[in-house]
UniProtKB/TrEMBL annotation:
Its cofactor is a divalent metal cation. Its EC number is 3.5.1.25. Belongs to the carbohydrate kinase PfkB family. It comes from Streptomyces alboflavus. This is N-acetylglucosamine-6-phosphate deacetylase. It catalyses: N-acetyl-D-glucosamine 6-phosphate + H2O = D-glucosamine 6-phosphate + acetate.
Amino acid sequence: MVLPTGTVPGGRVIVSEDGRIAGSMPADPEAVETVDLTGHWLVPGFVDIHNHGGGGASFTSGTAEDILRGVQTHRLHGTTTVVASTVTGEMDALAQRAGLLSELAEQGDIAGVHFEGPFISPCRKGAHSEALLRHPDPAEVRKLIDAARGQARMVTLATELPGGIDSVRLLAEHGVIAAIGHTDATYEQTKAAIDAGATVATHLYNAMPALGHRAPGPIAALLEDERITVELINDGTHLHPAAFGLAFHHAGADRVALITDAMDAAGFGDGTYLLGPLEVEVKEGVARLTEGGSIAGSTLTMDRAFKRSVTVDGLPVEDAVAAISANPARLLGMYDRVGSLEPGKDADIVVLDAEFTLKGVMRKGDWVIEPLRSPGDDPRTLGRKSRSAGFTGTDSAQGSVTDIRGGWSEVWANRLLFGMIRTRKPHTRKHAQARGTVGPGVKAVIVTVTLNAALDITYHVPSLTPHTSHRVTEVTERAGGKGLNVARVLAALGHDVTVTGFAGGDTGRTLRDHLARVPGVRDGLRTVAGATRRTLAVVDARTGDTTQLNEPGPTVSPTEWAGFLSSYEELLAGDDVSAVALCGSLPPGVPVGAYALLIRAARAAAVPVLLDTSGEPLRRGVAARPDIVKPNADELAELTGAHEPAQATRDARRRGAHAVVASLGPDGLLALTPEGTWRATPPGPVRGNPTGAGDSAVAGLLSGLVRRLPWPDRLSRAVALSAATVAAPVAGEFDAAVYEDVLPKVAVSTSPSGV
């Protein structure tokens, strides 16, 4: 089986009765039915973000029943998640079509809507009706977004046309993917669109200027920019193998999404079809416009794309899985549910033989095609329609299959191993009606995670001068680390808090003694063999400057890390947990992707999660799609490569964060969220020790989240708490009088479009 960590031989997948992947066997082994798939590959269900139809059905013009038939056709070829793409049409017709498709998306039959056209270039129209093309007017783009009722996933547009850049910004602000395609843009125009928020290249190479050595055009700009995911149609017609390999070489496996761009004829055969208003002739599996001969989509299915990528183009299986499952799932914001074979996700599984021919498909724990039971069986005759697609009975061939689950099922393959991924129970959280927020009168717990806690020691000296001795006038000692500072402020605001992480040695015991004296904070730290680190802050009384010295922390063993994961999941299983904060650096021995794993666990438990870290843990964590990420300006620049805060904030959100709140020091906060974009500015500078000001901002954001406050109120609290912390003598405390004074004076304004 292919896991996110690679291909590992031996093992099993366990499918629980709710149609999700489990990490351990149920208590009653008699409840398990086993399917032995020795000699096969198990890979995640395929995710197609660009698909116009199949099985003789068009997503642009078909009835709801037609659309479901098209969806089911692609499921029979391994596509367990599909976005329905439309082609250019009249605006009113597209808006009406968006309404129908949004209903199917709300039912879970499709994963949303992709509008390919009408906002494309007549110079690169491909198989789109030129008479219906129009410039990308932001008002008309907004009309389609609104018509899709929150189910618009992507809009392809020629960004060089009038209104293109403003439309890209509009899409980015509404959390809709802006895709550059059917474009005649120059290299420079394409870069401008990327800077404005575009993140996808629609079927790279096709319907755009060729790569030139003097005029590199959009292809070079799209391949070189790490913010862009490039779509590739690997059917042997749209792309030469060398062009396919060039894209993978320059973009890397984590920036490619394999697509079908399929039209009605996929899975249905040669003949004459309509693509929008245009007639298409399909001959020997290649679709071309009857008039003019332009390629008109494809008849590709994802199983063929996968097999060709591995057997013809020589892709490593892991790279093909990333391009056909994980990367498109991340683009859609669905990686917490689909895109990899990990506990807690939907049991979407594709079974392939040693030659990478499809032999079975499971979607949400139900077989769409049950794997062969004997060498002579035809897998299409053993297919069962997925109940979630609104079908019952069998495929067009005769026969039915037995649902193997019987409560639980166990799928074995000689290339499968679940490794160290842990079990996760299904959650039906009482407080999850607003993704973890709570109503009046409900007591809720906020969990703060501090994997590298510290005993904070602060020395105050009259004046700090290098290379001399100093007399310390005051010493303070307290439990520290970013998450503990957050917990202390939250408790002072009236919240119940549980802190977890690691503590060990004499410093760990001292830290826990300090923690026990904080009202409202429960100690959930795990004991480790190594000693908790110390941080030393030296405060210069003359200048007010602080010099910080930080120890690395204890080395955490694999057993200690596994024990923490178990206790963390137990915390998440509690019905009273309202939010999680993941804060600070990682100690030696903890994997660099630890926060990404903890974020996925929280999302699977329907608990909102905030991330506050830096470096590689931040990069990996953002990709796991936390609800809020709160970097400072330097951390943002390191993450994105952009030094202008507005641009860096946009880039960080495109990488996966649901909302980004950037700390700008004395200039306050910049927030980019699905609900809007704001700047929150304090009334003036506050003199004091800034250590812990960012932690207090995190506490303010979490407090506002669980109390369901609107974003401007959350930001006001965060800024006021930061200022009040600067005025306090030590981190993790705030001056209540300063907080009350500053709070009504914080200026919160809506930022300009595109920030």
